[in-house]
Amino acid sequence: MLAEPLSYNRHGDPMKNLARILRTLALTLWLGGILFFGAVLAPTAFRVLPTIHDAGLVVGASLASLHHIGLICAALIAASSAHSLIRFSMSESPIGWPPATI
């Protein structure tokens, strides 16, 4: 049985794994927030609150917060994707071109 090289890491590059995890968590938070807003918050606010104006205030404030969360998540996704592309070696690709990782 051959010994594995000392530089072998069966879990891959830890920074690349961290970037992948960060990208997945940011995308999950972003899409989950959008789905929760559209499926739960907005319909509930318009059904439960006494006036349409009150529901509009709640939904408008929530939408502003969701917008800020989306901007932060988009920045994290872009940064982690750029990190993965920069760390990707041209020699690792079978065609000599780094694939887009999303």
Structure description:
- This protein starts with 13 loop residues before the first helix and ends in a 15-residue tail after the last helix.
- The chain has 2 helices and no strands.
- It has 102 residues and is mainly α.
- It has a domain at 30-88.
- The protein is elongated.
- The longest helix has 36 residues, at 52-87.
Total number of strands: 0
**What Rg, in angstroms, do the CA atoms define?**
21 Å
Q: What sort of overall outline do the alpha carbons produce when their principal axes are compared?
A: elongated
- Fraction of helical residues: 55-70%
Count of DSSP H/I helices = 2
Low-confidence stretches: none
Q: Mean pLDDT, as a whole number?
A: 82
Distance between the termini: 38 Å
Topology readout:
Elements: H1 14-48, H2 52-87
Helix pairs in contact: 1-2
Short structural description:
It is built from 2 helices and no strands.
